[in-house]
Amino acid sequence: xxxxxxxxxxxxxxxxxxxxxxxxxxxxxxxxxxxxxxxxxxxxxxxxxxxxxxxxxxxxxxxxxxxxxxxxxxxxxxxxxxxxxxxxxxxxxxxxxxxxxxxxxxxxxxxxxxxxxxxxxxxxxxxxxxxxxxxxxxxxxxxxxxxxxxxxx
Length: 153
Known about the structure:
The chain is α+β, with helices and mostly antiparallel strands. Strand 2 and strand 3 (81-85) form a beta hairpin. Helices cover 42% and strands 13% of the residues. The termini are far apart. The chain contains six helices and three strands, in the order αααβββααα. It has one domain. It has a three-stranded antiparallel sheet with strand order 1-2-3, with helices on one face. InterPro entries: YkyB (IPR025552). This is YkyB family protein.
């Protein structure tokens, strides 16, 4: 195994964790089953906030409002990256509303693979992917049994 990748997996600096969250979030948007990826993102952001390594900047109107009603998301800054999360009631009371999301700002590019990003976040938050283990235990293929025409079981 390459030492560079091993360092990335065990490095818990804010920038590396933020880059891993960015990679997981980017893949979750197109994943067929994104639940675990979004859970990793949420747990990692909450832990960064608790440790003081990330900060809530304000509220943005959501680009994808639920039930066709206007809703807001919390803007969180972690390292060089910005993320959105659903707000709590306290967020509406304590954070300023920044209005519409600006399309002029983009997060920095990342070349981190999804598997390494997931491993970084799983190590950081102490969460294991049960879904991955379940899908690896595929059922053994059984040949179909055909009965002769007119035969019953």
